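Design a sequence for this backbone.
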């Protein structure tokens, strides 16, 4: 039996699922013998998986932090990612970045950026759990 809010979470053999597969049957078996275990069993619906929010700018997500972000996405853990995409390096005064769309004018790309914008959504969807 899967909790309703877990239906929206990625499927996979995460630590959460491995623990729940062992914990729930054990609580079911032992709840009649120990009052505290019975109390814990009654709270089974509170065992939902935690989710984490990762928030960062496009310079972090598309460039310097992309390796770490890719690792987190591939981990099959439940995370929410919010990228504040300004389509340039805002902290450098508007320098072109991998988030800058092709043709856009930016610092050091006054004639328009020559390469396509990196598609983070498409890259993330290469993993089965996204």
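Sequence:
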């Amino acid at each position: 039996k899967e909790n309703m809010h877990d239906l929206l979470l990625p499927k996979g053999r995460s630590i959460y699922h491995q623990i729940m597969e062992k914990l729930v049957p054990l609580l079911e078996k032992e709840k009649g013998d120990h009052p505290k275990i019975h109390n814990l069993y009654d709270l089974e619906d509170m065992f939902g998986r935690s989710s984490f929010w990762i928030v960062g700018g496009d310079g972090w997500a598309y460039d310097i932090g992309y390796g770490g972000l890719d690792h987190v996405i591939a981990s099959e853990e439940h995370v929410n990612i919010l990228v504040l995409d300004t389509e340039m390096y805002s902290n450098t005064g508007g320098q072109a970045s991998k988030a800058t769309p092709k043709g856009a004018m930016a610092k050091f790309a006054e004639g328009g950026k020559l390469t396509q914008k990196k598609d983070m959504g498409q890259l993330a969807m290469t993993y089965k759990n996204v």
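The chain has five helices and two strands.
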